[in-house]
Every structure is written in structure tokens, then in C-alpha cells.
Amino acid sequence: MKVLIYSAKDFEIPYLEKANNRKHKLSFIKESLSSKTAIKAVGFDSISIFSGDEASFITIEKLKDLGVKHITLRSVGYDNVNLRAAKRLNIRVANVPEYSPNAIAEHAVCLLLTLNRKIIESNRRVKLFNFDVNDLIGQDLQNKTVGIIGTGKIGSVMTKIMHGFGCSLLGYDINENAGLVNKFNLKYTTLKDLCKQSDIISFHVPLNSETHQLIDEDLISKMKDGVIIINTARGAIINTEHVIDGLKNGKISALGIDVYENESEIFFNDFSQNIPDDDLLIKLNAMPNVLITGHHAFLTEEALTNIAETTIYNLDCWNEGKETENELTT
Hints:
The protein is α/β, with parallel strands linked by helices. Helix content is 35%, strand content 15%. The protein has helices at residues 13-20, 57-65, 83-88, 101-116, 119-127, 153-164, 178-184, 191-197, 217-222, 240-249, 279-286, 301-319, and strands at 2-5, 25-28, 46-49, 70-73, 92-94, 145-149, 168-172, 187-188, 200-203, 227-231, 252-257, 290-292. Helix 1 packs across helix 12 and helix 4 (101-116) packs across helix 6.
């Protein structure tokens, strides 16, 4: 099977090639999928895309005209794909439903600890041989209330980790996990009550019509003064402008994000010589109590191996005329 890999990153190519083991003819391009770059898929049976690629209705139609039959995502999220259009045009779509919940949850904890204990500022001073510790006061995590929004695979790992720190745990999800209640004393509550009671709030939900800009000025106003917000899920879950206002007025004491609502044209690229024309990102990046990483929470050896193996597995199934359990268009 001839497969075009869009948005191919140097770090992932060796993992994909190893998992493929020369079974499929893989071609790699750095360009992301869009209605403009769809033409590059001419002559290919299948394509593989990442979370920043855009498979809109128009793009799907162009891929169909070019003869593309399959789209395999190298991500869990699929909000960037018009599944209705793909299904109507008989293009099969599959994702990687689970690659490493530990990678994402551990990164969320890393953001939290770095912000809480002011590690970056402390290290900056030490690099200058300044060992003054004034204004580096953090808080014990033990006995703090942590609100976990989304208690699926990643949220479950986050629950386990924060329970290990001795935190009180609140959860919000449309599907409650009895195992988390029994093992880690997680208490499910409403979204508003979670916001009112939590010292720390961490997001682990997919992006859809229900979660788009879930956190806005109304919910922020109900949060505890000095709340810490961590988002390693999807950028558009929070209203960035409203969060910036919360940071300015002190309602939010710190923000740690691995995702950003306008990241698609920015993340995974080097803009060090040409700062992006994005006022919200510039404001966030200038704040000392904001920590941003460029969507690399998934970047572990284990996760990259699992992503590559599942991507090739999906292609194997289609090549053999089988249906993969990871299909989103059945």
C-alpha cells in the first residue's frame, strides 16, 4: 500500500519505519494536510495525519477525487477530521485510541510541579550564580484539592498520581469511573462545584461541541482565588482571552499548558527569528506565572512506539481487507 505521511516529524520517522518493516511504501512530507496540500496525495492509497492537520469537508472531497481510500491518524483526538464527510464518501478513518496515558498525565504533573515550586525562575537565578530564594515560595500538594476534568485513560492516571501526593480528588465526567472512586477516593461532582472547590484543575477531555471553550469567564469567576490551571488536552477547551483576564486579576495564580487554541499554524515550527502574529500567545508567553510547552506531552519513547505500531496496524488491516477496531467511520 502506498501511504503519504503528512506533517512528518524527524523524531517520529524512525519509529514509523521500524514498525512498518518495509510492508508499505511510506513517503514522508513536512507539510500538513489542508485543502491546498491535498493534491500531494495523488497516487496514494492512504494518508496518515497528525493532530494539527485539517481534514475538512472540502479536503475530504479532494482526497476522494484523488483516489485516497484511508486516513489513519497518529493521534487520539480526531476533532480535525470531518468524519461525516469521510463516511459519506466511503473513506475509512482510524485513530490511535491509546498510546501512553502515562506520558500525558506525567507531563501535566511536571507542569504543575514546575509552576508551583517556581523551578524555572530558581534555575534562572542559579545560572547567574544568584542563590537568593526570595519570592520562590510554593505550596505543599498534600491535602490540596485537585479537580480532574475528564477521567478517561489519561485522567485516571492523573488521579492515581495526585492521590499519591496525598491530594483530595474531585472528578467531572459524563461517564463516572467507579474504580477511581473505590481506589483513590475520587468524588464526582458538577463542573461548577469542582471549580468552586479545587485548588488545582487539570483537563483531560477531548475537544467537541460540548467541551469547546468549556472554561470561560463565568466558570473562572466561580473558581477559588489563586487556582492553578493545567491543560494537556486540547487548547480550545479554554477561552484563552478569559484565562488571561483571570491571570491578570489574580483569580488564576498559574497556568500550565501543552496545547493552545491557535496552535495549528504555530506549534512544531521554529519561529525564533520571526515571532508569530498572535497577540494572545505573546501575552501568555510574557507572563512569569505561565508555563507553555509546544504540544510535546506525548513525546516519550513508549508513546512514539505505540503510535507508530498502531498506525501501521491500521494500514495492515485495510490492506488485508479487514476492519480495524480503531475505525471511526464504522
